[in-house]
Write the structure tokens for this entry.
Amino acid sequence: MAQHIFVYHAVEDGFEPSATTLPRRRLSEHCRVLSDLGWRAVRVDEMIQGADDGTFCITVDDAYTSLLDIVTVCERHGWRGTVFVPTGYVGKEASWDVGAWRGHRHLDWEGLRDVAAAGWEIGIHGHTHTALTDKPIAAARQELRCALSVIQQELGVVATSLAYPFGAASKALAEMAQAIGFRRGVTMEPSLVEERHSPLLLPRWPVYRMDTAAHLRARLCGAPWLKRLERARLRTIQRFSQGTRVRMSGKTNVISDAAEQTYVE
């Protein structure tokens, strides 16, 4: 399959201490350089088993309003990608991101329809953006079934790709996700995709604010030692970016069980 999956979150100009928020010029630089190198971005559901054909997957987690900017930049290069939506927060402030410097707003349903019309795949990022490994398996199943129902009801889309919130996944979760209809699942493990990886536990390269086009080139076509260096660097960043998940684990989620039940058959 395509050997690389990149994950972006938000693009925003001005001062922003969040590691996952990129300036718009940096996103444009990434896309321009990779396009000039002959690389082409595809959707997660377009990944072809065994292919090493100069394609990579571009994914966007959380579906903030800046997703529209990302889609526009990708369109200039003829690229499409996959967006993973936390369905309980569509059109709302990201109140789940406790302690965030700047509260990003999630794109509304009209905006998501425009994204789907632009050829992007709509995937699931949970309903409440809670780490599924922090829930009993039955509650995690309910959360995903709820999200699937919301997407189908609002967009008429049967979602088949899943991004585990915070990248928190397990073999049991992957098996459950597959059983309820998901065909692909992506984590936040920084690595290239290899044959040994389960389709429901695929690694992704996180893209952080400080990442230049040279960092992305190293992941795509760098020497093995460069890829190892990138993995080590990204894992170090991740160790210092778990605050939101830790704070959420002790916080009652604003999306109630009753709201979930509205969409669960």
